[in-house]
Amino acid sequence: MKTKFNTKFIALLITILFVTNAVRCQENKSVKNISILPVPVIGYSPETKTYLGAVTLFTFNNANDTLTRTSNAKIEFNYTWNKQLILESDWNYFFPKEAWFTRGVIHYSKYPDLYYGIGNNTSESGEINFQSNRLIFDLDLLKNIKNKLFFGLGIDYKSFSNFEYLNDGESYPELKNANNFGIKVLLLKDRRNNILSPTKGNYFEFNNSFNFSSSFYFKTAIDYRNYFGLGKTNKHILASRFYHSSIFGNPPFYDYAMMGGDKYVRGYYLGRFRDKNFSSIQLEYRTNLFWKIGLATFGGVSMIYEKISSIGNKSFKPNAGIGLRFLVDKNENTNLRIDYAIGSQNQSGFYISFGESF
Question: Distance between CA 122 and CA 126 in Å, rounded?
């Protein structure tokens, strides 16, 4: 445990040093349409041994187009001493005057993962450490119908192959080669003032997907977020999020509704609990302390369950955490986010990322 903490702390120091340098270079120049923030990553875990990588954030806009919010893209690369690999790129891009909006993810990895089975009461003793080759391609294209109300379609392809068990333990028949192709129908209203670090406005998304794998299944999700400035200067921000997803049919193990991770419920390993339904309410308070340093506290409660009639005490999963914010791009109000969160059943998580969780 001590080794993990030390390597994370070292990685954190290196990250801050490099980002600080990137900010200084940017501040000494005139404002440009494109900002590039590279961050190196170094760390250690028992599954991967030493790993090295880099994350680069690109933000870009047209200074002459005041109707269009700033777009962003991220490229991530990780490589381990065990010859494991992660390559990922994701983006959020507004066309001029926000007439159209596109977002997506391209991901390839050969990397270890943990699996505990399906349900809200799975045991730590049933943990399986496995490795697989994963390919993900997710693309959405939406048209601005009126006043930042977007409607559009998307496609989603996932493939998991070449499974390899990295420890002895329980056998799960669902851990096998699988792939799926999905067609999405999306409706969203996005009135946030900033995509990466919103301080006011709201966001609503209704996402439905028709998926084809070994059998057909349907997914639906609702995502609603609000941002409020407290006080006259809006130095204090209160953010809230309600999220719900449901699965109808029998998806591959990787496409169940999952809680945890950096984006949904910090404090739980992503996929620690998965089932047909997932609901979550999260609150976060953010404020600037001094200079470029900010503070955030957050928490919430989530439910993971097969069906409404099966909801019980084990369905509810609380989480809480605290984090630091380091302003890396003053023009776009972009933060480097450093969070630590805890959940129930001895779950916890440490996160470093650009922008807010929601």
Answer: 7
Q: Is 277:243 a contact under the CB 8 Å cutoff?
A: no
Q: What CATH number should be reported for the domain holding residue 332?
A: 2.40.160.50
Residue 133 neighbours by CB distance under 10 Å:
16
Give pLDDT tens digits for 125-171. Answer: 889 989 999 999 999 999 999 999 999 999 999 999 999 888 877 78
CA distances from 318 to 194, 300, 349 (A): 28, 6, 13
**Dihedral sign, CA of 157, 101, 333, 294?**
negative
3-state secondary structure of 107: strand
CA–CA distance, 161 with 158 (Å, rounded to integer):
10
Our CA dihedral for 48, 51, 53, 55, rounded to 10 degrees, sits at 60
The whole-model pTM stands at: 0.87
Reading the block at residue 235, the tokens are: 């130095």
Q: Which domain holds residue 220?
A: 2-354
Q: Give the β-pairing of 71-80 and 85-94.
A: antiparallel
269-302: pLDDT as tens digits: 999 999 999 999 999 999 999 999 999 999 999 9
Task: List the end-to-end C-alpha distance of the chain, in Å, as a whole number.
Answer: 29
CA nearest to 317, candidates 277, 354, 268: 268
The span from the CA of 103 to the CA of 250, in Å, is 27
Total domains in the fold of the chain: 1
